[in-house]
Amino acid sequence: MSERLVKILISSFPRILIPGIKVTIPLTLLSFIFGCILALFLALVQIANVKGLKQFARFYIWVFRGTPLIVQLFIIFYGLPSIGIILDAFPSAVIAFALNLGAYNAEIFRSAIQAVPAGQTEAAYMIGLNYPQTMFRIVMPQAFRIAFPPLFNSLIGLTKDTSLASSITVVELFTTAQQIAARNYEPFALYCEAAVIYLIICTVLTWIQNYFEKKLVWNTPTPVKGE
């Protein structure tokens, strides 16, 4: 490795990392939060079998799971202005990622809710709880434990997918690496450096996931000898 390349990598590392902290991480978190809110709504209307809304939820999930994320980004950022809706690049990316993530996380929430034993719901109704109370006091706390690992996996996947925001001019981590590579003519080394930064971020998220998964493990009673 030449001395020139070493200097480029050393000087470019903070210049790539800073947009990762200031843009990529906020983009990921905002998209994930809004996507989870949407996903929970889509899952609940399916579980509750709300007429009309259930069909809409299934249609929505079908569309957003069946079309590429980059196409959805282009439709929102480049397509909507043709009908008079103009959005900046960052909000466009948040909307696209949230809408896409909502479709996938809706299925995670739905399967987690359905995995809670039906007897829990029946017992809640017997003690006088209504449907919203049953869902949010009894079912959802248990469903969240089941949904947590796949939800966190989707967060890690979203962190990497935010690199697609470079295609709609969001100056995030990967966009900065592209700009530096174009000026220094060292695309291989700089793209590898960007990959390392993504790897560092995702590794930290994996550690966080492992920590909270241990905290959420069900407490199982210790068997008594002789039983």
Identify the notable features of this structure and list them briefly.
single chain; 227 residues; mainly alpha; flat; disordered C terminus
Describe this structure in words.
The protein has 227 residues and is mainly α. The chain is built from 8 helices and no strands. The protein has helices spanning 3-47, 53-66, 69-79, 89-115, 118-126, 131-161, 173-184, 187-215. Helix 7 runs antiparallel to helix 8 (187-215). It is flat and about 75 Å long.
Share of residues in strands: under 5%
Q: Return residue spans where pLDDT drops below 50 for at least 5 consecutive residues.
A: 218-227
Portion of residues in helices?
over 70%
* Terminal Cα span: 67 Å
- Provide the succession of SSEs: HHHHHHHH
E-strand count: 0
Major beta-sheet overview: none
Summed over residues and divided by their number, the pLDDT gives a mean of 90
**Compute the gyration radius: what is it?**
22 Å
The number of helices is 8
Shape: flat
Would you tell me the structural class of the helices and strands? mainly alpha
Describe the secondary structure blueprint for this structure:
Layout (H helix, E strand, L loop, with lengths): L2 H45 L5 H14 L2 H11 L9 H27 L2 H9 L4 H31 L11 H12 L2 H29 L12
Brief rundown of the structure:
With 227 residues, this protein is mostly helical.
